[in-house]
Design goal:
Blueprint (H helix, E strand, L loop, with lengths): L4 H9 L16 E4 L1 H4 L5 H13 L9 E3 L25 H11 L3 E7 L15 H11 L3 E5 L8 H15 L4 E4 L17 E3 L11 E3 L4 E3 L1 H7 L12 E3 L11 H13 L4 E3 L8 H7 L2 H7 L8 E6 L2 E7 L5 E7 L5 E5 L6 E3 L4 E3 L6 E5 L4 E5 L4 E5 L4 E8 L1
């Protein structure tokens, strides 16, 4: 069928559908969020202190870059023009000055809002103000927006998040868009063209495998979150990540549990967003959060989300293909007692069918590196042996000789 010139002009005149900002979050975002430790008790001095700690503790050097203010940064009412207003007591110099300070440290600045009429803590949400709010974020120098899902009534999630995506694009400043509707609407099926990461569960809490009820919803411990979703790993990749929530490393679990938590978030290619008070973090907490080997697994260029290989005798084994034919493996002791791990490479056929990759230990020999100990453990030519402490982890990288 031949199209008329007038019809072609009509088609060309149609507005192009907005898209999210491309080439952002090509690896899982790394940073810090205020909520897990401080809830709405945040202020300008605290955020500047955290930015300083990023630099002084070497966290910036290992890849952490986003400092995100969660709920509670704004005043209870918009101004007469409908603009969001930073709380004048908490942030007397406003958001632009704070963003400038964070940028001066070589870091990036993030804010929170909500798709509903109000945020989860009762502050002004963005419903009906999406384009106006996006212009504010752009003018302040925001680099990251966490967008929640409270007080949304009968809003359609896909449409609500699309509206904010379009508003951010229209405002013109590249902003990483973090979708936070808790996995209620299966965002792994629709969000890759809308956001750069999306929460897959409700809120995390600092325990190994518990659930804490809050009436109509529950907070979930580390393994409750890990086990909640099935068959979503195919949705993850450069620029679009399954977000297993902000980390609880340093917030009251054992050092072993913190290592396992950090290792698993790295294996899952989840954003690494710290949630502890960096000003009082212990040496062991900082050692875990700064582990370059685990971070490299998380930030691997392939962007493949790892998966559970086996779960036998209270030992979970997870695998993750890496670039250059390398692999990461993580052994987690779910027991409350020590466990002597013995793993015979010749007895296991290890592969990732989704990505057509095989760990061929029969025809190739791989060097084994213990990532948390930062030392060699020999090769796959010998049986792997290691004493795993309760709730602790052995995280290794395998590279061909």
């Amino acid at each position: 069928m031949k199209l008329s010139p007038l019809y072609l002009l009509f088609i060309l005149a149609l507005p192009l559908q907005a898209q999210k900002f491309e080439n952002l979050a090509q690896t899982p975002p790394m940073g810090w969020n205020s909520w897990n430790t401080f809830a709405t008790d945040i202020n300008e001095e605290l955020i500047k202190d955290i930015a300083n700690q990023f630099v002084e503790l070497g966290l910036k050097d290992v890849g952490y870059e986003y400092i995100v203010l969660d709920d509670g940064w704004m005043a209870k009412e918009r101004d007469a023009q409908g603009n969001l207003v930073p709380d004048p007591k908490k942030f007397p110099n406003g958001m632009k000055a704070l963003a400038d300070y964070i940028h001066s440290k070589g870091l990036k600045f993030g804010l929170y809002n909500c798709a509903g009429n109000t945020t989860c803590a009762g502050y002004p949400g963005s419903r009906g103000y999406e384009y106006q709010d996006a212009r504010s974020y752009a003018s302040w120098g925001v680099d990251f927006l966490k967008y929640d899902w409270c007080d949304t009534g009968k809003l359609n999630a896909t449409e609500a998040y699309t509206t904010m995506r379009d508003a951010l694009k229209k405002a013109g400043r590249p902003i990483v868009f973090s979708i936070c509707e808790w996995g209620d609407n299966a965002p792994w099926n629709w969000a890759s063209d809308i956001g750069h990461l999306w929460r897959v569960t409700g809120d995390i809490i600092n325990c190994w495998d518990c659930e804490v009820g809050h009436g109509t919803w529950s907070s979930l411990g580390i393994w409750k979150i890990i086990n909640l979703r099935k068959d979503i790993r195919k949705a993850a990749g450069p620029g679009h990540w399954n977000d297993f929530d902000m980390m609880e490393v340093g917030n009251g679990m054992t050092d072993a549990e913190d290592r396992s938590h950090f290792a698993m978030w790295s294996m899952l290619a989840s954003p690494l967003i710290m949630g502890n008070d960096l000003r009082i973090a212990s040496k062991e907490t900082l050692k875990t959060l700064s582990n370059k080997g685990a971070i490299a697994v998380n930030q691997d260029a392939l962007g493949i989300q790892g998966f559970r290989f086996t779960n036998e005798d209270g030992i979970e084994i997870w695998i993750k293909p890496l670039a250059n034919d390398a692999w990461a493996m993580t052994f987690v002791n779910m027991h409350q007692t020590p466990y002597q791990l013995t793993f015979d490479w010749n007895k296991h056929q290890i592969g990732d069918n989704l990505n057509n990759r095989m760990l061929d230990t029969k025809n190739s020999t791989y060097q084994i590196k213990n990532l948390f100990a930062n030392k060699s453990m020999g090769t796959t030519g010998s049986i792997l042996q290691h004493m795993l402490q309760p709730h602790d982890v052995l995280m290794i990288k395998l590279e061909k000789q």
